[in-house]
Design brief:
single chain, 318 residues, alpha/beta, eight-stranded mixed β-sheet, 8 strands, 49% helix, 12% strand, receptor, EC 3.6.5.4, cell membrane, nucleotide-binding
Length: 318
């Protein structure tokens, strides 16, 4: 089906299954909102607003969606509640397609940047290291040579975790152990990437430093040492967010975008939550590409985010 572009049947099934809880929650609330109503009136719109906000779409994005639905109702006076599902799907798809975020191809790297360097940021507990491990696996499966840098040196388990992922997926990890200089790890990881003609270097960074200033300084230092080898690196600063935290993910996105130049987002743990609407809100509000979403435990269940496929799945009952 053209809508899904490169999405295979297995990936579509994983996406549908991963969004199950979100969809059950959304349709249950939507059903109650329109119960006993035949037309989309002001009461239904008020109820719909509540449904979207409580599905963690976010207030700003919800207001945009309600305004669009209201405009449709004003234009066609006879829209009934039975058509609301279709209208919502069309308006949310339209909203996301207007963002300056383009769907990317399936785990592909730019041919003119080698090694391509990704700096990964995010608070502890959001699935940052797991996302790095799964990304490494996916890119390795596509034939790319991947190197990892264990620069989250302030947390006891972080270096060990990334080493385990390296062993599990069969990619080398550059590490200096705990309480060492993160910039030094990043330096050696990128040097190794250049020397060994790797395609991709992924660098894990500290999940939490005491203040935003510390975080900014640390990331700035890492960027400077990387640029000794590759002047335009890092090519991507990826923020990992836990989708199951709903509105807290918005707050983390706000904080990190203030502290550093975030260029892409990965939203994890969508399979264990009813808060999948957060993807719609974050994609709309931050105008930063949501590149990857986690819809399950398996390696293959970290997927490239396709806006249209996501909206289609969100509005399709299993």
């Amino acid at each position: 089906m053209a809508l899904f572009g490169f999405m295979s049947k297995d990936k579509k099934e994983s996406l549908d299954k991963g969004l199950e809880k979100t969809k059950e929650n959304f349709f249950s609330k939507l059903g109650k909102a329109v119960a006993g109503k035949s037309t989309v009136d002001i009461d239904v719109l008020d109820e719909l607003e509540e449904v979207l906000v409580s599905s963690d779409v976010g207030i700003e994005t919800t207001v945009k969606i309600i305004d669009r639905v209201e405009a449709r109702v004003a234009k066609d006076k006879y829209l009934g509640t039975s058509e609301l599902n279709v209208i919502l799907r069309e308006e949310i798809a339209g909203l996301l397609s207007e963002n300056n975020t383009e769907d990317i191809e399936d785990f592909e790297l730019p041919k003119d940047k080698k090694p391509y360097v990704i700096l990964v940021v995010g608070v502890n507990g959001v699935g940052k290291t797991t996302t790095i491990g799964k990304l490494s696996h996916q890119f390795k499966q596509k034939g790319y040579k991947v190197i990892l840098g264990a620069a989250d040196t302030f947390r006891a388990a972080a270096v060990d975790q990334i080493k385990l992922w390296g062993e599990r997926v069969g990619v080398p990890v550059v590490e200096h152990g705990m309480n060492t200089d993160p910039a030094s790890v990043a330096f050696d990881a990128v040097k190794k990437g250049v020397d060994e003609q790797a395609d991709l270097v992924i660098i894990d960074t500290a999940g939490r430093l005491h203040t935003k200033v510390n975080l900014m300084n640390e990331l700035s230092k890492i960027k400077k040492v990387i640029q000794k080898f590759i002047p335009d690196a890092p090519h991507e600063v990826m923020l990992v967010l836990d989708g199951s935290t709903g509105q807290n993910a918005f707050i983390q996105a706000q904080e990190f975008t203030k502290a550093t130049d975030v260029t892409s987002l990965a939203i994890t743990k969508l399979d264990g939550t009813a808060k999948g609407g957060v993807v719609i809100g974050i994609s709309d509000q931050f105008k930063i590409p949501v590149k990857y979403i986690g819809v399950g435990e398996k390696m293959e269940e970290l997927q490239v985010f396709n806006k249209m496929a996501f909206v289609e799945s969100f509005f399709t009952r299993n």
